[in-house]
Each structure stands twice: as C-alpha cells, then as structure tokens.
Fold Prephenate dehydrogenase.
Amino acid sequence: MRTALVLGTGLIGTSAALALTQRGVVVHLADHDPEQARTAAALGAGTDEAPAGPVDLALVAAPPAHVAAVLADAMGRGLARGYVDVASVKGGPRRELEARGLDLSSYIGTHPMSGREKSGPLAATADLFEGRPWVLTPTRDTDTEVLNLALELVSHCRAVPVVMDADAHDRAVALVSHMPHLVSSLVAARLENAEEAAVRLCGQGIRDVTRIAASDPRMWIDILSANPGPVADLLADVSTDLDDTVRALRALQSSDEAKRREGSAGIEDVLRRGNAGQVRVPGKHGSAPRVYEVVAVLIDDQPGQLARIFADAGQAGVNVEDVRIEHATGQQAGLVQLMVEPKAVPVLTAALRERGWALRQ
C-alpha cells in the first residue's frame, strides 16, 4: 500500500491516517466537514487535497447509518482499488450495499476494537489500535488483493487481525461493547440528581463502572440504531437478572428466616455468575487472565511521581503488569495500585520503602 484515502476524519479515521502516514503511506483526507479534514491534516495525518487518481485503499470512517451511502459513492467514482469501512456494525451496511446491486469483490468490512471517550480528530493518536483486535469480515466474494490490503492496514496500525462472520461480529460487539455502554450510562444516570454528599463518596469502583458513559451520545445513537436487535436481547436478559436480584434483596428484608436464606442464595448466585464471567475476560496480551498482587503506594499530586515509581520498580527488577490510580477526594494526593506477580511483592515492597515511598495495605 502506497496511497490511501480516509473518508471521515473523526477519532478512528484520523488515528488510522496518523498510523499510515507514520509508515510512509501517502494519505488523503476528506470529510463532510472540510474544517475537520483540515484539522486532521494539520495534525500530520495526511493532506486534505484530493488524490490525482485512484488510491490503493479507501477507508470509510463514517457513522454506521451513513457507511453504505459513502461507500457506494466512493465505489461509483472509482476512488480506490480496495475499500474498507471501520463501522462498529457489519451486517447492516453490507446488506444495504448488496441491495444497491454493487460488486462487493473490492470491499471488506472491518472494525477496530478500540476507541476513546473523546471524539474528533484532536482526540486521535497513531497508537490507538496498537495491540487491539481488528475484526475483518471477508466473504466468498472478497478479492484476495483487497483482503491483503486490509491486512496491511491492520499491520500498519499495529493491531491484531481477527476474522469473523459479519452477523456473528454484530452479536459479539452487542455483548462486549454496546450493551455494557448502555448499562454504564444507566448506572451513571443515577448520579445526576444524587445528593452532593453521596457523590463526594465516589471511589474507584463507580469511576470504573461509569467511565465509558462519558462518550458522545450522538455517536452512540448512530451505533445502537444500527445494531438494536442483539442489544435489546441482551438487555432483556439483564432485566430478568435485575428483577431476580431485586426480589432477592427484598427477601433479605423479610422477618421470615426461610425467605432471607432464599434471598441470600439469589444474591450469591448472581455474584458467582459474575465471578465466572469476569475470569473469562482476556488478560494481558489477550491471554487468559492471571492473578496479580497489588502494591499500593501513596503519592502526592506532583509532576514526575509516577515516573519515579516506575523507575524505582525497574531498578528493583520488577515488571509492573498493570496500574490503577485512585484519587483522594478533595486532596492533592492519590493511591497508585501496582499490579505485579505475587513473587515480586516482597522485592518491590522492600525497594519502594527503601526509597522513601509510603505504602498502604
């Protein structure tokens, strides 16, 4: 791939353009909002000038509802040798293209499983997709050359290619992305009119649960409108679990010992099923999750604190597998939780204490 055209310079399109440009691909940028394309170009994602002729690959980064129309227009004008889209749903756009009677041998639907709460070109980064799954949905009609171009795109973005059927993909993202987003929003909505005293008690748990609720509602309306059936089916199952959980909690309020035992068993059931589901979430590098120990360090809110901790851990020969930061409400301090292999805990603890860090249990 030597040339590419990115149609849609939001977060995903601009991030892909930045990655391609860094790998030496000449990238042309276009958007329904020319100012957005100019912003992406100013960030080094490519040029907003139109290509002189067909490019090797056209990447459509439009909302799901508009993907088919943008692709049909690009294919009708012969803008590229191959075409991909990066919409978060795959079955609907392909069926719409088929209904338009287009030759789809030059097209393959794709979906990078990466994003941020922020949108637009200013939120883009060249490493947005690094190490993340990038789904490809080829069919028997897909030309081998186009599949190879899509694989090259994934490679340039340092993502991990995953081949799936389009409808299977849509059911999967409903489970791991679309439904969780709505649940996060439902939980966050409880905070809107909550008392200030209650909100001030927010800790890392509520921050983790509600983080993705900060995303742009307009973008998510487009996404959910393109995949409503599978998401509704999953939410119906969640609703059943919620009804059962509410009944179990009400039973715990009963003066009848048998009902309280029944309620306790119901709560234990949902919690254990939650445990069983959580351990299936892939861990580092996509492997099965591993159990790490936590070394908690109290830090001041000053520049360079995190860098010092990581440097001290490195000098002790300890690899930090993951890190979380819990901010102290109303204070210029925080608790850094370093996740490490269990055998590394004594080494790291001794090294950090020796260097003057305040550790917490």
